[in-house]
């Protein structure tokens, strides 16, 4: 992996996982030393992050962008348009076996989310697998690319609910319903289940959001 790719991946992960908080100044010397790269590949990485909207270049230098409630609402407007259509297409074109397996795993997901040591990362990986399965099923490279770009920001938003086991448990049931609708080949039900999940997710975020 090129040094610039390595720096980009590390910084992107730190941003979406909230290890680098909004407003953090990404000073070149400090970050280059931390990541073990020279300043040239670091600048390339920062330019990519700025192009994606995860950082902003200004008078102070490059800083991690914040996420306002208005930003989240705009993301969900686009998300509903793309993901509800993608779910419908997946129901028409996808392999039912793949989505039956995912449905069963989401039905069992509360075991990951509750208890003294919730396996949150395992749950988020399961969500990513559903996203990837839908991307593969729709056979539309342009739509899949658009959704991948959107998910860069949605991963950050999802982490806002990371400590709310009740909401994540409800979301797991909603994901199971989406997977089930796709598995039985019902586009309208898949679209409706996706829309319901997104509306509930946005309502939860709006009720609990604090500016960052």
UniProtKB/TrEMBL annotation:
Q: Which Gene3D superfamilies match?
A: GntR ligand-binding domain-like, Winged helix-like DNA-binding domain superfamily/Winged helix DNA-binding domain
UniProt-listed InterPro entries: GntR_C, TF_FadR/GntR_C, Tscrpt_reg_HTH_GntR, WH-like_DNA-bd_sf, WH_DNA-bd_sf
Q: Give the HTH gntR-type domain ranges.
A: 1-67
Query: Which UniProt keywords are given for this protein, alphabetically ordered?
Result: DNA-binding, Transcription, Transcription regulation
Q: Entry's PROSITE patterns? A: HTH_GNTR
- Pfam families in alphabetical order: FCD, GntR
Its Gene Ontology molecular function terms?
DNA binding; DNA-binding transcription factor activity
Please indicate if the UniProt record lists DNA-binding as a keyword.
Answer: yes
Recorded hits in SUPFAM superfamilies, A to Z, give: GntR ligand-binding domain-like (SSF48008), Winged helix' DNA-binding domain (SSF46785)
Q: What name is this protein filed under?
A: Bacterial regulatory s, gntR family protein
- The gene name on file is vanR
């Amino acid at each position: 992996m090129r040094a610039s790719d390595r720096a980009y991946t590390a910084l992107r992960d730190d941003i979406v996982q909230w290890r680098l908080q909004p407003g953090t100044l990404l000073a070149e010397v400090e970050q280059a030393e931390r990541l073990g790269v020279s300043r040239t590949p670091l600048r390339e990485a920062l330019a990519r992050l700025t192009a994606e909207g995860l950082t902003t270049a200004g008078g102070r230098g490059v800083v991690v962008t914040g996420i306002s409630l208005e930003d989240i609402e705009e993301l969900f407007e686009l998300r509903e348009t793309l993901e509800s259509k993608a779910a419908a297409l997946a129901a028409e074109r996808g392999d039912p076996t793949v989505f039956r397996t995912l449905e069963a795993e989401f039905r069992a997901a509360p075991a990951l989310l509750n208890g003294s040591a919730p396996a949150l990362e395992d749950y988020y990986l399961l969500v990513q697998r559903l996203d990837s399965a839908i991307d593969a099923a729709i056979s539309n490279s342009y739509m899949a690319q658009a959704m991948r770009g959107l998910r860069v920001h949605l991963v950050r938003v999802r982490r806002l609910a990371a400590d709310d086991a009740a909401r994540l448990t409800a979301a797991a049931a909603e994901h199971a319903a989406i997977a089930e609708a796709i598995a039985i080949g019902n586009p309208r039900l898949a679209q409706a289940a996706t829309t319901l999940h997104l509306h509930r997710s946005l309502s939860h975020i709006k009720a609990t959001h604090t500016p960052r």
